[in-house]
From TrEMBL:
Organism in which the protein naturally occurs: Bambusicola thoracicus (Chinese bamboo-partridge)
GO cellular component term of the entry, any: extracellular space
Keyword Oxidoreductase on entry: no
This protein's record includes keyword Glycoprotein: yes
SMART domains cross-referenced by the UniProt entry: SERPIN (SM00093)
Family: Belongs to the serpin family.
Keywords, comma-separated and alphabetical: Glycoprotein, Protease inhibitor, Serine protease inhibitor, Signal
Protein name (Swiss-Prot/TrEMBL): Serpin domain-containing protein
Serpin domain segment(s): 1-213
Alphabetical list of InterPro entries matching this protein: Serpin_dom, Serpin_fam, Serpin_sf, Serpin_sf_1, Serpin_sf_2
Length: 216
């Protein structure tokens, strides 16, 4: 028996501050120090919540959707991805929120269209969910038979990001600066982490590491 777990974040979530497709251009995205791919790089200049974490060596930018959903983009410095991944927790995210400053950003973000399938059986077993994978499994509530057990647990993930917003499956007020500050250029042209969450409840809807925005 194969269990497929698909969680959706739909319909397309629209950016509060959409990118203009006429400003999108081809640029390099550096997958690693030896490899790069060509991407459609979106750009937009506006006021965003932004924080640079000196301890973790990463830049964090909040992009609001229309409604209560938010995207959190985390750009580690070169060679610091593992450090950021290991430190990523609810406490870390709350700390970033408490230290956000609204700054004028010239933001560069690639269009994203990625998907993947992952066997999460080992993850479930580490969490103590073991009986369903053994002969002790009782799945009679969904199958009417006590002879079934789960052989695999597959998670299917899909993420699309473009100028208008985000469509993810995996399962708002505009804040203006009170003073005019020089803009900061933030370019997501190397691997980064993206979180999508519902701000009112703090529920994480999607989390992924973008290593190659073009990988289908």
């Amino acid at each position: 028996m194969i269990k497929c777990n698909i969680v959706s974040f739909s319909p397309l979530a629209a950016w509060e501050k959409p990118f203009d497709s006429e400003n999108t251009y081809e640029d390099d995205f550096f997958v690693n120090e030896n490899e790069h791919v060509r991407v459609n790089m979106m750009q937009h200049e506006s006021d965003y919540n932004r924080y640079y974490d000196q301890d973790l060596s990463c830049e964090v930018v909040e992009l609001p959707y229309k409604g209560t959903a938010q995207a959190l983009l985390i750009l580690p410095d070169d060679g610091k991805m593992k450090q950021v991944e290991n430190a990523l927790s609810k406490e870390t995210v709350c700390n970033w929120f408490s230290k956000f400053e609204t700054r004028r950003l010239h933001l560069y973000l690639p269009r994203i269209s990625i998907s993947g399938s992952y066997d999460v059986k080992d993850l479930f077993m580490e969490m103590g969910i073991t009986d369903v994978f053994s002969s002790n499994a009782d799945l009679s509530g969904i199958s009417g038979s006590r002879t079934l057990q789960v052989s695999q647990a597959i998670h299917k993930a899909l993420l699309k990001v473009d100028e208008t917003g985000t469509e993810a499956a995996g399962a708002t007020a505009i804040i203006l600066s009170k003073v005019s500050l020089p803009h900061i250029t933030t370019k997501f042209n190397r691997p980064f982490i993206m979180l999508i969450f519902e701000k009112a409840t703090g529920t994480t809807l999607f989390m992924g590491k973008i290593v190659d925005p073009t990988m289908e």
